[in-house]
Amino acid sequence: MKRSKFTPYLMMLGLAIGASACSDDKLDEINTNPNSPLESPLSLLMPQVTVDAAFGVWGTDLAWYSAVFVEQTTGVHAQFEQADKRGNASFNATATSNNWNDIYASELQDLDIMIERGSTGAEAGSWRYVGIAKVLKAYVMSVTTDLFGRVPYSEANKGTEVLKPAYDKQEDIYKALNALLDDAILDLAKPSPNVPGAGDFFYSGDAAKWTKAAYTLKMRLANHLSKRDPQGSADAVLALLPNAFASPADNLTFSKYTATAIGENPWYQEENDRSHFAVSTTFYNILRNTTTDTDANINDNDPRIPFLIDPVGRKKGGDRVAAPNGTAVNDQGRTNYSRPSENLIYATAPQPLMTYAEVKFIEAEARLRKGDKTGAYAAYTAAVDADLMSKGAASSVSTSTTAESKGFRDRVFMGADNLTLQDVMQQKYIAFFIYQAIESYTDYRRTGFPKLNNPKNTVFFPRRFPYPQSEIDTNGANVPDATIQDGVWWDDGTED
User: Fold this and answer.
1) With contact defined as beta carbons under 8 Å apart, do 218 and 240 qualify?
2) Which of 130, 145, 208, 417 is least surrounded, with the fewest CB atoms within 10 Å of its CB?
3) What's the pLDDT tens digit per position in 230-287?
4) CA 212 to CA 219: how far, in whole Å?
5) If you count DSSP H runs as helices and E runs as strands, how many of each does the chain have, helices first?
6) In whole angstroms, what is the distance from residue 108 CA to residue 141 CA?
7) Other CB atoms within 10 A of residue 404 CB
């Protein structure tokens, strides 16, 4: 069993003299640190796995590269500038090794320990912990396969039993994750005398909320199959809808970052320490309802603009200037282009992983596929309103009659007859700025929206992430022969 990262390294005690006077039991006692157990209890594992799900998956390179590729941001420094400009070998096997190791050697392994320990191990019967761990495992594993395609799952984290795990088909992984979530829902309904409290940084051990999160994740997975089975995907989404998030109060959000050097929101750390990203022209122009900065029809009255985008240099009253993907100048000094607003990115900023707005956008997309424009528009309106409210709108903009909101209202709330898939996906794209960039990257690969503008996309557009060098070196015979321009299974129907 893996020793928890919460366990510090034990100091070796050197007994130069007098050792012969000690019994074996006494030696065992001397060499045991009561404050450093060799096996971490569930109560210590719980905060670690929740932090890793937020920080280690959605707050690192996986999300940062996704934001650049889907053009929510523009890389303006170092490796992300090179990736944005498609520099030679700018997105290769060295870019993902750390994230891969964090996912497999840390997060998934800790979750497997929790599941075993709480079901049949030392704390058997701790079904609340087991159910939560299964939801988080399905969540982390779904992000992993969505980005990489075929990955180890059935043989992963088996220790010395399987040193070179096989790579499962993504179609099989999706089936397994749905089964895992079904198990989690059952586990969360079981009596559990041992329940997490404040150590669960998402829901404080609330079984009902975790159950809704499980159904919401199943909705997301079902919607990802829109290219493989449009009608079956829509039917599955709508069947799951009644049990998914019912309001923003259900959101799966990490809100435990602290204003300390090691506890800050990772997007805030990145901006302050390295400043690799500026706001993309693609994103800004979608907000302004235009395609170019010189378009005569520019409409700047989207109420989310001041919430989402700061003026250059964060100077009060200054201009907002977005950075063009593929051609921006280096701007680590923040003197040329706007950054995501301090309303959105700050030391203790909450980080959403799944939201009620996402549920309603998924519903709208599914109903459009079913030909139900009235139902799709109702869901779309609820989704946009939920996003607007989360970004400072005082009341429902869709029903507002104020003159200053008319232009925005007319183009965003266009009526059921005029609603298109592009409308749904563009508003979802705005809602996902910036913390849910990975899901926006997945949405683009599924739907082709929003329209991207990086001229270097003609050089290549990554449709998946590269397998890490660590896997190529140690498990090369099993690593699929795929390039970053090959789609994953739900994208192009192939497995490699």
Assistant:
1) yes
2) 417
3) 999 999 999 999 999 999 999 999 999 999 988 999 999 999 999 999 999 999 999 9
4) 10
5) 21, 4
6) 8
7) 10
What is the rounded average pLDDT of the residues 181-189?
Answer: 98
Distance CA 422, CA 415 (A): 14
Q: Is there a contact between 277 and 76 (Cβ–Cβ < 8 Å)?
A: yes
CATH (residue range 42-252): 1.25.40.390
For strands 252-254 and 277-279, give the pairing. Answer: unpaired
- How much is the average pLDDT of 99-109? 95
8 A C-beta contact, residue 298 and residue 288:
yes
pTM as predicted:
0.91
Q: DSSP state, 94? A: T
Mean pLDDT throughout 63-74? 98
Radius of gyration of the chain (CA): 24
What is the DSSP secondary-structure string of 356-421? HHHHHHHHHHHHHHTT-HHHHHHHHHHHHHHHHHHTT-SS-STT---GGGHHHHHHHS--GGG--H
pLDDT of the residue at 12: 22
